[in-house]
Amino acid sequence: MKGTRAAQRYAKAILELANDKKVAKDVKEDMLSISKTIENSEDLRRTLASPIIKPNLKNQILKAIFKDVNGLTTGVFNLLVENNRIDILDIVAKQYLLLFDDAILVQNALVTTVVPLTKELEVKIQAKIKELTGREATIKNKIDESILGGFVLRVGDLQYDASVANNLNRLKTEFKTGNAHVSKI
Length: 185
Prior knowledge:
The protein is α+β, with helices and mostly antiparallel strands. The chain has eight helices and four strands; from the N terminus they run ααααααβαβββα. It folds into two domains: about 5-105, Orthogonal Bundle (Peroxidase, domain 1); about 105-175. This is ATP synthase subunit delta.
């Protein structure tokens, strides 16, 4: 669909700004209203897509239709008109709604390692997080040399300990309890 990538970038920036100003929920309601209105009005879709209608007139029309929206949403109209992208307003609104919903369910992961995570390790850990929880997470790295190697992953109340220290402790416990299996040579 034309303009989707640009719409995603706009929506992401709008959500970040809305979160900073603590109006993300209000803007969500605005975007829901905008999306439904554009979807249900062939005239409005044609108006926004028309190269004949001047951008400033499109902006005035939007402000007349959506007069009760948050100031940030009005700023979105102005920005899209200024950048000659008002024709993707509907896609921006839908992308904002998707991002907002995803943001609510964002999970944070704490990964404890001996050395800082590299990009390759982050990718592997992200895969493990997805395997364990079904979702991706924002990764925060904590350095702790006492784990000796490997990593300890904590996502919410779930902990996955793949550290060398944990493996050594488990072996030590097995030897103490006599459950250790030693192969005959």
